[in-house]
Hints:
Blueprint (H helix, E strand, L loop, with lengths): L6 E5 L4 H12 L3 E6 L11 E4 L9 H5 L3 E4 L13 H19 L8 E4 L1 E2 L15 E3 L10 H19 L4 E7 L1 E3 L6 H10 L4 E4 L4 E2 L1 E3 H13 L5 E5 L5 E2 H11 L5 E4 L8 E3 L2 H7 L7 H16 L1
Parallel strand pairs: 1-2, 1-4, 2-3, 4-5, 5-8, 6-8, 7-16, 8-13, 9-12, 10-15
Antiparallel strand pairs: 11-14
Amino acid sequence: xxxxxxxxxxxxxxGVIGRVLVDLxxxxxxxxxxxxxxxxxTIEPEVIYIQADLAREVPPQxxxxxxHVVMHLAAExxxxxxxxxxxxxxxxxxxxxxxxxxxxxxxxxxxxxxxFASSYLIYDPSxxxxxxxxxxxxxxxxxxxRNMVGVGKYYSEKEISFVSNTGNKFRSVLPRIYRVYGxxxxxxxxxxxxxxxxxxxxxxxxxxxxxxxxxxxxVAKGLVRLAEAQDASGVVNLATGTARSIEDVISVLERLFxxxxxxxxxxxxxxxxxxxxMSRFKQFTGWCPxxxxxxxxxxxxxxxxxxxx
Length: 309
């Protein structure tokens, strides 16, 4: 794909993945319209930036921009536990927001590819919780959304697929992303790093869990590669393909912080042991996310030290 000839809409551009994605696309020479409800002073001058809450109103500039490629990342997450009123927040910022973007772009003429950042939380949790060993999730595995995020993502997947097949015939790619961590994120690794820098104890829940941690920079690269792969379509896992335990993460942090204090807290919650089967992604792109857990956490530590001071 020649990005220099492409107009790309990026929603959720101020997020941990979005910031990296915008930079990657800008380096490739794409014309970018980035949208987020948060202000973002890091956006490069050549990137068009709109601060807008897409769950409330879609600015007319999105339709006028007439994108060739949509990178839809805007979403609202609560992974571990969802507060009583979260169902309203999730609906507004996940399926409703996605629906509004589709409506805004319904009659555009240039749309070629719609990349929607989905989630592995769509898969049936009985496949990968309270099981012996790690379970490698495949795209054809059973679906039974684990929480409201999974429900919203699954609905949007179906809606985008339907519109892409019955409307303007654009290519829809639905990467189901796993446990993202990165610079400036709200993920648990970043929270632990911030606590360690401040000399505070880190609180560890569910030490037996194993997750497929994927560095945000690699997710951004993966999204670009899926957009470039003309035969890529439908659901595609996006992670590393290897589950790492909570203890693995703690081991890395102990190497980086000699005075680390850990508080282990036991909770009666299902134990997760999930990883992504990356065969389909590799088939499309010829690549797999390759930032090691050690190198990724080092990047987070460097970022947070500079930010916190």
